[in-house]
Amino acid sequence: MTKRVALVLGSGGARGYAHVGVIRELEARGYEITAIAGASMGSLVGGLWATGKLDEYCQWAETIDSFEIIRLLDISLGRPGVIKGDRLFERMREIIGDCRIEDLPVPYTAVATSLTTRKEVWFQRGDLVTAIRASSAIPSLFSPVEMHGQVLVDGGVLNPLPMAPAGSALADMVVAVDLLGAPFQKKQVVEPEEKESRSIFDGLIDKLMGVSESKKSQDELSASMSLMEISNQSMEVMQESLSRYKMAGYQPDVLVNVPRNICQFYEFHRFSEIAAIGRQLAIEALDQWESRHQGEPSLLLEAEPSS
């Protein structure tokens, strides 16, 4: 049966923790990841795995709470994006180190979007942390990355599920993880702690972006979404359409659909829960694929040694 996997990891904020669960299930079943392409959070998780630092990151992620997330996001006024993110990416560099993409053990692609050229930018060489930061710079929230005369933002703006790089990978199959899947039908109960953290984060961002609560009626405050949530959901509507378009040209062998309502995109304090959901979804998707392909030989033949 096929074992070599080109892995495509989509964008979606904290839902990207589901990528960890998918990777762990692939490894548990003996699949070999031979190439990774990712956008936004997908570029981070893929880069961490490629450097062998994913477990270290996960141990850290399990310990952080919502207040630590706010501190790491380094919110600042007077910038093109209310979140600087310097502290966050300093922490990422502490974990990853000064690593160059071309030195990774497998081909790796981080996808960003150039506001200058209006095109995708593929990072396949250069500093890994810089590539991840450019790929993750959500417009209007995170400050963009300026380099080589270009202004770079989140890869999900143009390509939330970067299938094309996987097309040329040396692999038997492509596994894609889409973080914009259809929502769970059953409404999830929001625990008091989650409500509190959401209120703190939403309120802080809204104030920094100039939204005055005095301008909202009581009905609007109780019923409407925050400005940040509206901005994020607007972008996700666009990304869902883009993902379908990309997959029309590059169909993955296995598609893991992560429901878009498993968490808010900034709920990075819910690592264990989200990673567990990702693993369960991977189990279901891989079980279905394996049941259809049981006993098939690998599509890649090993080269015969020369005599």
Automatic annotation (TrEMBL):
Location of the motif GXSXG: 38-42
One BP term from GO: lipid catabolic process
Organism name: Endozoicomonas numazuensis
Keywords, in A-Z order: Hydrolase, Lipid degradation, Lipid metabolism
Record protein name field: PNPLA domain-containing protein
Molecular function in Gene Ontology: hydrolase activity
Catalytic residues, chain numbering: S40, D154
Motif placement: DGA/G: 154-156
Positions of the PNPLA domain: 7-167
Matching PROSITE patterns: PNPLA
InterPro entries: Acyl_Trfase/lysoPLipase (IPR016035), NTE (IPR050301), PNPLA_dom (IPR002641)
